[in-house]
Design brief:
Number of domains of chain B: 2
Helix content of chain A: over 70%
Number of strands of chain A: 0
Radius of gyration of chain A: 18 Å
Number of helices of chain B: 11
Number of domains of chain A: 1
Low-confidence stretches of chain B: none
Oligomer: heterodimer
Distance between the termini of chain A: 25 Å
CATH architecture of the largest domain in chain B: 3-Layer(aba) Sandwich
Largest sheet of chain A: none
Largest sheet of chain B: 6 strands, mixed
CATH superfamily of the largest domain in chain B: P-loop containing nucleotide triphosphate hydrolases
Helix content of chain B: 25-40%
Shape of chain A: globular
Chain lengths: 255, 322
């Protein structure tokens, strides 16, 4: 356990030093989307004012997903490509899967910080506009943010340990892009009734649970998933990706 | 006293990717290293040295066999085994996001050293490796030799019982190499057990108390450098520089006491023929007689005990490896 915490401490030290880089890469997208979809388009009248409320928790979710995935993927790519910096971790007195799960926890912390910063930043940008109705439920928010961070980072571990570093760029186009569009970030899951049974296919996307969780915690006025389904979805995906990711990590690192 | 490291019937087969065939990198390697011993694995590229080392360090999963470090099975008790070993890898894998001093301190943290101890030890090791001026430098800004010293300092942070080094002097300039040799000798004198892979003969001869020459995944010969050299057929190496009208080798081959004749590359167009003969004691006079009878013009003759390189080339052959 002390090794796990020491590795985590090292990651957080490095992340803190590169805080500016992380913040810019995490917050640029939500800020730009808010400017266009939360400001310009409603003023032109092309988008309803209420969209601001629907969009805000969704953008927090996307921010967390991206920060969590990158928080694990980036160090993993350095680790696995050539220099084998990961060997120092693997030689520390901790199990191989412990090394993988530690990366998930450090990615989760980065994701949670990003999500918690993105929310107020966006609210500030939309201050005083019509149609924004935010009523955070703080007791729910913290554990759900933590779970969202863990799920994002575990997903990042699965991606990072299954994909060759030279294809990393492709991940954003082929995996993360579609995930964001079909992740219920810009519309609540409840509204997908129009798609019929097809809507259940969305549940394969882990981002759906993060978006719905943020909706439940930040904009409870908008229709959102029940807590039981939310928790079940989170746990199932979390266990699946943590298991898949750490298994592939072990296969990739121990020859 | 029981062995510090014991490798028993180790095999490792890497599964082939797609249609490539599986690679049998190690095919039944056994050896024991006593506490405080400096042991060397000598062999050409692709001989199985690094794989063997990798299996000892838990970074490579053995296909068969057993490895004990300090009596602990590295497959069954990897965490306990890892506390006892330290590795200086072939690829310099220093944490590029930390400073040199932080690299040491954090390594100490990973191994659960108390705060005061890890700070103290980091400073002591920086001093010892002559890195105190570089404490605040990022590893990637350091030269290869300095990085190598930092790797050794890092390895010593958690006070290991066995230090494993994979081709530690590759890419170092002669000064850095010599300094590294001194450091390793010091560590050995202080009682640390060392296992090193190398393909530099001078290094192996100078540092290692015992060597295993390994090729194609098996140990070909094992012993002290002196014993390995004595074990070479003939026990003497006779080099001849000469000029002769017809090839001399077939005649020399017939001389009693001459075990083998190898042509050596000539130095230049006018240098004539160079031959290396592996001979028994006392064959020199007979060889010179035959050469004279054949009308050869001897330029230079040297008789010397065999070097480790002679042993190595005799065992592993002269063909080029990738």
């Amino acid at each position: 356990m002390s090794t796990f915490l020491a590795l985590l401490r090292r990651d957080l030290l490095v992340a803190r030093r590169a805080a500016a880089f992380y913040l810019v890469s995490a917050l640029t997208q939500p800020i730009l989307v808010v400017l266009v979809f939360g400001n310009i388009l409603p003023r032109i009248g092309l988008v309803a004012d209420q969209f601001r409320t629907v969009m805000l928790p969704g953008l927090m979710s996307i921010t967390m997903l991206m920060a969590g995935v990158q928080g694990v993927l980036m160090p993993l790519m350095t680790d696995l490509a050539g220099t084998r910096e990961v060997d120092e971790r693997l030689l520390a007195p901790i199990g191989v899967r412990g090394v993988a799960l530690q990366r998930v926890v450090s990615g989760a912390i980065q994701a949670s910080v990003a999500g918690l910063l993105a929310g107020p930043t966006m609210m500030l940008l939309m201050h005083g506009v019509n149609g924004l109705s935010i009523h955070p439920r703080w007791v729910l928010l913290m554990p759900l943010v933590a779970l969202s961070g863990l799920l994002s980072a575990a997903f990042g571990l699965t991606l990072g340990s299954n994909v060759q570093p030279r294809f990393a760029g492709l991940l954003f186009a082929v995996v993360l892009g579609p995930m964001m569009l079909f992740g219920c970030a810009y519309y609540p899951f409840a509204s997908l009734g129009v798609l019929g049974p097809l809507r259940f296919a969305f549940l394969l996307n882990p981002l759906v649970f993060i978006s719905e969780a943020m909706r439940a915690a930040v904009t409870p006025g908008v229709a959102h998933m029940g807590t039981a389904l939310l928790v079940a979805g989170f746990l199932l995906h979390l266990v699946l990706f943590a298991w898949l990711g750490s298994r592939s990590f072990e296969k990739r690192t121990i020859l | 006293m029981s062995a510090s490291v014991s490798v028993q019937d180790l095999t490792k087969t890497y599964p082939g990717a797609r249609k490539a065939p599986a690679v049998e990198a190690v095919r039944g390697v056994s050896f024991e290293v006593a506490p405080g011993e400096f042991f060397g694995l000598l062999g050409p590229n692709g001989a199985g040295k690094s794989t063997t080392l990798g299996c000892i360090t838990t970074l490579v999963k053995p296909t068969g066999g057993r490895i004990l470090v300090d009596g602990l099975d590295v497959v069954r008790q990897p965490i306990a085994a890892k506390r006892r070993i330290a590795v200086v890898p072939q690829v310099r894998n220093l944490d590029r996001d930390l400073t040199a001093r932080e690299v040491l301190v954090y390594h100490g943290r990973y191994f659960g050293l108390p705060a005061a101890e890890r700070e103290q030890r980091a400073d002591r090791l920086l001093q010892r490796m002559q890195l105190q001026d570089k404490a605040a430098a990022k590893p990637l800004t350091l030269s290869g030799g300095l990085q190598q010293r930092l790797l050794i300092a890092r390895a010593l942070m958690h006070d290991p019982k066995v230090l494993l080094l994979d081709e530690p002097t590759i890419g170092l300039d002669p000064q850095a190499r010599r300094l590294l040799w001194e450091t390793l000798s010091d560590l050995h004198q202080q009682g640390l057990t060392l296992i090193m892979t190398t393909h530099y003969m001078e290094e192996a001869d100078r540092l290692c108390q015992r060597l295993a020459i390994i090729d194609h995944g098996v140990i070909l010969r094992e012993g002290t450098p002196a014993a390995l050299k004595q074990g070479l057929p003939g026990g003497q190496v006779l080099d001849l520089w000469l000029r002769s009208a017809q090839p001399l080798s077939p005649h020399l081959q017939q001389v009693p006491g001459v075990l083998r004749v190898e042509p050596l590359p000539a130095d230049g167009p006018d240098e004539g023929e160079r031959l290396r003969l592996f001979v028994d004691d006392g064959a020199l006079a007979r060889v010179l007689d035959v050469a004279r009878q054949q009308g050869a013009d001897l330029k230079h003759v040297s008789l010397q005990p065999p070097s480790l390189e002679d042993v190595y080339l005799q065992l592993t052959g002269r063909e080029l490896r990738d």
